[in-house]
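Bench notes, afternoon.
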Amino acid sequence: MSLRRQPSAAGAGATPLPPTRAPLPQPLSASAQFRRIAAVLLLVLGIHGAGLFLFKEGYLLTRLELNSTATCPTVPPWSADFVPPAAAASASRSQPVANHANARAAGGATSKACWPHARFHRTLLIMIDALRFDFIAYNESIPPTATPYYINKVPVISRMLKTRPAHSLLYRGLADPPTTTLQRLIALMTGALPTLVDAGSNFGSSAIREDNLVGHLQRAGRRVVSMGDDTWDRLFPTSLNETYPYPSFDVWDLHSVDEGVISHLFPALEKRRRSAAAAAAGAAGTRTSTGNDSDSDWGLLIAHFLGVDHAGHRYGPGHPAMGDKLIQMDGVLQRVFDAVDDGTLVIVMGDHGMDTKGDHGGDSDAELDAGLFLYSSSTPLTDVSAAGQRSMAAVLDGLTAMDKQLAGASHPFSQWEGTRTVPQIDLVATVALLMGLPIPYGSLGTAIPELFLVGEKRWWGSGVSGIEHLVAVARINAVQLHTYIAEYSQRRREAAAAFADASPVFARAEQAFERLAFAGSASGSRSGSRSGTESGHQAFVDTYLLYARYMRETLLIARKIWSRFETSLMYMGDTVLVLGVVATGGLAAASWYSDMIVPSWRLLAAGFGCAGVAGIGGFIGTTLYPGEDKATLMISPRHEVLFFGILGLLAALAVSVATQWQRRVSTTPPMSSPGAPSCIRYHGALGAALWAMYVGCIGSDSFTIFEDHVLTHFVQLFAAVTAFRALFVPDARLRSQILTRMGGFFVLARCLHASTICRGDQGYCSPTFNGSSQSSVAALHTPVLLGVVSLCVVWALRTALRREGMDAGVGRFASRWIVPVALFLAWVYWLIDTVEAHELDWVAPARDLETFKFYVARCMWCTIPVAVGALVRSPACVADAPKRSGMKQDGTGSATADADARGSVFVDRARTASGTYLVILAFVYVTMSLFQKPMGGVAMGLAFLQVLCLIDNVALWRLAALSEVQRRNKKQEDGQDGQDGQDGHDKHDNGNADCNAAADGAAGLDLTGVYFEHLVLLLLCGQRAFFSTGHQNALPSIQYEVGFIGLDGVNWILSPMFIGINTYGGPILFALAVPLVPLWGHGHSREARRLAARIAREVGQAMLVYHGLISGAEVTGVTVFVGWFRRHSQAWRVWGPKYIFYFVGHSGIFALGIVMLGVVHQSSNDTDKAGHLDEAIRNFIWGCSPVTFRDGAERVFFNGSCFGAANHSDYSCSVLLEGYSYPPKSSSDAVVGVASIGRTMAAVAAYAGVLGAVMML
């Protein structure tokens, strides 16, 4: 008895349907199925995209920019014109938004020179990108023989600190995350805490429009010059008087930017020194700094070096190249210190640090720990007298005690690991006050106290002590910050409650300052005598500490609430995502056993439009924030329209799906299904358990930190449980093959786990992805591993294609030419790169290696168009038939042998579809591997082998289920029919019938659990491959250097594309393998149309379940937990980057899967322009129709049935060759088809050659 669906009403011997039922719908064609699949997938992607967009609008760090511009006081605090603090506070409260609020609060106006007067007229900012503190801090305890490449290579800093202590200061510059150059430069010029998304006038642009230091220099008539990193040009496109920009993205170029900066820096310094010398000698009059001054008179000169940062990205800090760059910077700094003239403040700093691999972007200690060195050739920076040291000790002791009291500070503000520490944003207020400029309006920094503990006689006409000067400066700083917070709190009311906690400290500081000011006024004292006594000195110290405490507490509050989370938008996004996953699950369940249900588009549009109207009024924002200015609200009517529209669309989708499902149930006859055989009955339970555990674990920050380890255990659990279940499979051959696949899968999982890249918070992790923990260069043995794995991949691909009957045509071309050649070129490229990175000069000169590597990369590119051309232009399932006996039909319908049958052999339709898609996946794997580092290429090869193990496992369990059903049916037949006297011919026919019945019976089996289990595994393995290719859910793990493979500069289209391929290569590979789960190892059916439609339906359902349900639940879980932990202490270190990676990855891979399916389908419908090739030959994804060829007077074709052709299958099923007659067409069809294939391959080769030549030129 065969296992088939019950015959339709039109078939012979069918059971009549009840008269109340409508006629059965005809099965949809493959093209119709595809259109339904694409439409439904696009709908689900749109729902996910809307949810992620709404959540992003409420979550990604945003803040309000104020357009106010700061002014400065003009009256010294101890003068008779000084405004008392009570009056200043009243003015600040009465007019908090006015641009003159700062001046009013400090007792000044905007028409006079700022107080305090400028101590320095020029500032030279030497920005050494990624200069970590330990790069410039000299450590004498390390012997020279044990010194790493990044230690003690800049001794000039230590030398200046020893020889000129009053003119040199060294600090740890504590950067704020994110530690990306653009954000850090914004902070260094504005004093604010920039975020990834800034709301305000500069939204959508990188140009700084907030009040900033460069703007104040321009308004003061001082020229600003920049050289080096071109980021400065993007930040200040119209504010720089002179620029020498160099591209900053080419991290493989260690020298061009630095050499360019040096070529402009020292001529500028020399010109300035000559001008100053001429002015001092009377050769030229003193010039006023205006915008029309000579080139030598600048107010701020920025020299931004990139070599250290690029050396870190390219090689890591523990590489000789890093030592060379630091030695070069040591020489540059020595020349700068010798060349600067009087009145110039030199600042040497890094915008951030770097982690142990040389990357940055996160918030690990190594990334936040930047160097900061200040130097002046003539004017002392600090008071080294006994009185000055006494005051400094008292202030620093108070700051250290304050650090212990402040709650919420991740790092101390005064001392960190025994070194004086300051936040980098303190530099803005410090430089502004030293240069006689207003502090930028939105600055949150505190002026560095050491630089203001200096008494200046000219400011008051009599001597003023350093501590009095410091208190006066601290009050200016605190009033500026208080004024800014007052205006910000008025614009954002939820900020007022948070900042109110620090207001009492400011009030106490003002009261203390008022007592000091009026005490001095009453006594008539204008000198430092007020602080001369012990009690007077301590009173000034206490007053300064009150101001400092207010500013530090305000900074801590700003760090917590500065980034406004719009929780209503986050809840809206979560709601859309959760409902979208539920709707996807319902749609998949309703469509699983029949054609894909497509809802009524008119109903969906009506639901979206009618419900979206409810959001036009913006009543959610009005209700939640009744008194707030709508211009400052994060939630807008467009968000509400989208939210309510999606809710209406989901409601319409539910109604439409339920209606169609009910109609389908009422018109479709019941299916006779043998049920799920015992061997696959509990597969779905394991898949559901793994899926639930994975989604549930997302809520743990420990899981996120150690996700790579946990995923390995999940994958190993699947392999172990599957192997255990295989022990109970009766068929010995199937049992052996399942155990072999799962054993190999387990070993591959362990090998992938061996490739690790460590997060900064993993602690005991030992990285193996690179050669060492202090390097980003592969170990010398890695290219050997890459070569071995590449050979294994080629062998496994050939074996799989041969087993699927695809060892001819495009399958042969892929497995014997494209894939091996591309992998060989990739291996050569990374071998050269590794040799070059390890500086093995005995192999070849470095310049020759670089040139050769460049051309190898260009040749690698050529394999991509060749692969695409092979897919688009060549038949997928035609092979040359050797001279062999065949079968043809005579006039009576019986089969007869034909010894002269020659021509093209048609391989099984379903198996051709799977084999062709495997070829496509192999091309994808090759493309992904080209842009992976050596160990990443090893991981990608192992991942591809895992894909083969998984899809083989699906086919084997399908066969195990069929085998069990056959045995069960055989027993039933033996019990009903005792006849066993059939002749040999009858036995042969019966065997063939059983084989075909078993093949067709696969359609009646419930394989939902098997499919679901392996789809879950594809997701888990994809995430595991993400980590094995050298990535973490952290910005520093992005491998920017791969963006320049085969490029001689930055290409803003290709470079981001290469980086994206590198980052998401593993998840993309496994996601694109989803169609192989239902395709691989299918049997043959004589009803070609029904089989093609079934394949299309199963592929679409698998993609819907994977992207819409399994992966959708993953990204929904991430989004929900990210919102829940938005105030978590690990919010930026763990949750923020995780959301960004999943947001981009899920959306991009989902869209890529749809595009991939569309490209393949479009190519399948692309018939030969000359009309010589049958259209079905070009049908790559759904399989090929019979191919006819000339054989005497007849046209026949051979069809390998069941599960594969002879000697090409690991599965247990007999082989049947059947002959069919077709109406003859042109006698030259076969010849023309073969010639067309040859012309196509020649055209592809010619195109690749021309493209390669153009690229090389």
